[in-house]
Structures are given as structure tokens and as C-alpha cells.
Design goal:
It contains nine helices and seven strands; from the N terminus they run E-H-E-H-E-H-E-H-E-H-H-E-H-H-H-E. The longest helix has 28 residues, at about 105-130. A seven-stranded parallel sheet has the order 3-2-1-4-5-6-7, with helices on both faces. The relative contact order is 0.14. Helix 1 packs across helix 9 (about 220-230), helix 3 (about 65-80) runs parallel beside helix 4 (about 105-130) and helix 4 packs parallel to helix 6. The chain has about 250 residues and is of the alpha/beta class. Helix 4 (about 105-130) links the parallel strand 4 (about 85-90) and strand 5 (about 135-140).
Length: about 250
């Protein structure tokens, strides 16, 4: 079994959904975890749940649209735990509508959160990891952006395509001490995904019909992929994007 005993893991955007599932998974495998996001009450609830089962957690408020907030988050992690070994940058939002109809504010907000914010997280995570000899970073991309386009969701798909590109580049900049990979998920049952499915007027039953593995994914499926990429078992993997979609994008459209 993969173990993170003695490690400190930060999950940015972990008050719900995939991020929450991942920070809980890190805690179950022995890591001291940092729950971060904008929703303090939810974040503190996650920390309490982790501590109730014997884990160690810390909530740190962060707004990834603000560089000073990210820098302060990393400073707080280092002051509290003295090290940072793993990070999963999962904060993200979506806004739906044709590009010509989206407000400039919505466009800027999605790009600032999903791509600029993720880039800034790595900017401050890397020096903290190097201070301890190295580490592993995983970034949240999506099959929307990595493999397919998604009409009415252009800023999100653009940002997620950018995540793939910057992951490759920072993997080179971070080598050999820091490995950087991404996960590209699709058809994962989360609140954000359900909002997208509703916007596209597609039901979960319809999605299952087009899933080669015969089911939709759960946040824990993505969490398992993140933990693998952060583990020593993946020590020869960097600069790649791991697809977690049940085979959705490889099937022919007949």
C-alpha cells in the first residue's frame, strides 16, 4: 500500500469534490494534510473529520486569484509543518455560455482561477519543496481541454489545455528534484460536474451508456490517481497527463 507517513500534502481547492476526496485520501495514507480554499466553514469541517479518525490536518484560507493569498498560504504551511512534500492544485470554477455572450468578468474569473491561480500555486510551492529536497506536484486538468472541446465552456477548456502545457514545462524546470504531472478527468460525479451535465441537458444514465467501464467516476477515482503520481511508485513519471475518464475519449463516435 502507498504510504505518505512523514509527508506533508497540500490540496488547493479541497473544501469539496475531488479536492476533498484527495485530501482525505492523503490523510488515510498517513500524510499530514493542508486543506485550503475560500470556504472556511467547509474546510474546517473537512479538517475535523480527518482529525476525528486520528489524522492531522490544517485549514488555510486561500483565494487563488490573489498571489499574496497564495504566498501567505505556503508561508503558513511552512510555519506550521516545516515542510511541503506533495501538492495537488485542484481549485477550479466554470461559467457556461457561448464565448460571444460571456461577460468579460466571467472570462477573466475562470482563467484567473483555473490557470493563472494554478500557475501561481506552483510558483510558491516549488521553493518550499526544494527547501526540503524536493517533492511532487499534480495539477488538475480535464478531458475538456486535454482531449476534446466543450461548446459553451470555452474559458474552462482553454484553461485546462493551458494546465497541460504548463505542467510539461514546469516538469522540466523542476527536474530532477520535483516531479510535476497532471490528471485529466471526465464524467466524475461531483457537484461541479453535475452543474455541467445540467447545463448540457445530459443525464447520468446517458453518460453511463457511453462509458466503456460501465459506470461514472467518483471523486475517489481521481484521488487514487493523484496519490499514485505523488508516490515513490511513480518516481520515473513526470511531465505527463494521466486520463481518468473510464475510457470515454478513446471510444469511436459511431
Amino acid at each position: 500500500m502507498i504510504s505518505f507517513e512523514g509527508k506533508v500534502a497540500l490540496v488547493v481547492g479541497s473544501t469539496s469534490g475531488i479536492g476533498e476526496a484527495t485530501v482525505r485520501a492523503f490523510a488515510r495514507r498517513g500524510a499530514k494534510v493542508v486543506v485550503s480554499g475560500r470556504r472556511e466553514r467547509l474546510g474546517q469541517d473537512v479538517v475535523r473529520a480527518i482529525e476525528d479518525v486520528g489524522g492531522t490536518g490544517l485549514f488555510v484560507h486561500v483565494d487563488v486569484r490573489d498571489a499574496a493569498s497564495i504566498e501567505a498560504m505556503i508561508d503558513q504551511v511552512m510555519e506550521h509543518f516545516g515542510q511541503l512534500d506533495c501538492a495537488f492544485n485542484a481549485a477550479g470554477i466554470e461559467r457556461y455560455g457561448a464565448l460571444a455572450e460571456l461577460s468579460v468578468e466571467d472570462l477573466d474569473n475562470v482563467l484567473a482561477t483555473n490557470l493563472r491561480g494554478l500557475s501561481l500555486c506552483m510558483k510558491y510551492e516549488i521553493p518550499a519543496m526544494l527547501a526540503g529536497g524536493g517533492g511532487a506536484i499534480v495539477n488538475a486538468s480535464s478531458q475538456g481541454g486535454n482531449a476534446v472541446g466543450v461548446p459553451t465552456n470555452s474559458p474552462y477548456t482553454a484553461a485546462k489545455a493551458g494546465v497541460v502545457g504548463i505542467t510539461r514545462t514546469i516538469a522540466l524546470e523542476g527536474s530532477p528534484h520535483i516531479r510535476v504531472n497532471a490528471v485529466a478527468a471526465a464524467n466524475i460525479r461531483s457537484d461541479m460536474a453535475r452543474g455541467a451535465w445540467k447545463s448540457f441537458n445530459v443525464s447520468e444514465d446517458e453518460l453511463v451508456k457511453h462509458s466503456p467501464v460501465g459506470r461514472l467516476g467518483e471523486p475517489e477515482d481521481v484521488a487514487n490517481a493523484v496519490l499514485f503520481l505523488c508516490s515513490e511508485e511513480a518516481s520515473f513519471i513526470t511531465g505527463t497527463t494521466l486520463c481518468v475518464d473510464g475510457g470515454w475519449v478513446v471510444q469511436p463516435n459511431l
